[in-house]
Target: Phosphoenolpyruvate-protein phosphotransferase
Amino acid sequence: ARQVALSAVTGPGSTADGYAVPLLANVGGPHDVAAALEYGAEGIGLYRTEFLFLDRAEAPSAAEQEAAYLEVLDAFPGGRVIVRTLDAGADKPLAFLPPGEHEPNPALGERGVRLLRAHPEVLAAQLTALAAAAARSAGALRVMAPMVATAEEAAWFAAACDAAGLPAAGVMVEVPSAALRASDLAAHAGFLSVGTNDLTQYALAADRQLGALTGLQDAWQPAVLDLVALAAGGAAEHGRPCGVCGEAAADPALACVLVGLGATSLSMSAPALPAVRAALSRHTREQCVLAAGAARAATGPEDARAAARSHLPGLA
Ligand code: PEP
Ligand code: MG
Model:
């Protein structure tokens, strides 16, 4: 019966008092589009493009890239599709683009936008394919960069997108320095998108791939909540949206807290959408703000969760 009740809430994401929070899906390629549509995603908040480059010694052709981007874009003609440029390195090593030297600490290595700067031709080819797909589709394509740590990197990426004819490029906030100086990044970016998986890893200095450290890999850690609030606040200073696309957005209580911290959209793996949609619909924005404040006032993740839930009575 609960299953039925959750899926009964349909339509665009919104709090009980009508504050719109677009609910978007994370996808890894065209193969994930069906699920995103089935669960009612309003668009794509994170298109991980790594799949195109997996198991290959050479870059995929321009035509192959364009087709893979166009297929996802065309599935959301009325919505937005945020494509993340190649995020190779660390937990996503690619034979196609290895780091320049042996890395004792791959998570702290030449990954994401750092690797794209070392290989600007790879980014240029990807942006050209993205611009070609955007020109052929009614969908609103936006591009964002992974692993941005400084305003200078954000400016470099925005300039590369601009040169390719792609408007309002965004940057991910998944490194503490990016959250701490979010306003500096937002000065160059069309939007920010918080990646809580990596942001948690770097805030707690806990490798996201180590089972022994899962207790620290918890986005309810108040330090992570503080960083999300800083990211949203920095974006707001420039009138920029700030979404969350890490898996934290898939936890219904935490989704409400993220909205209370200032997140303007939430993106998650598609099956999580109905429960998050239902949780938001049962609480006002004010309740989300109170839940966020209570969570940040806690000193640990369990207390943060309990404190937030005391302001979210509509959760099961
Ligand atoms: C993140 O780090 O939270 C994120 C969304 O990106 P990925 O999980 O692909 O690293
Ligand atoms: Mg990440």
About this structure: Strands lie at 23-27, 44-48, 80-84, 140-145, 170-173, 192-194, 242-244, 265-268. The mean pLDDT is 95. The pocket of phosphoenolpyruvate (ligand 1) is lined by residues 46, 48, 87, 174, 195-198, 245-246 (CB under 6 Å). The CA atoms of residues 67 and 263 lie 31 Å apart.
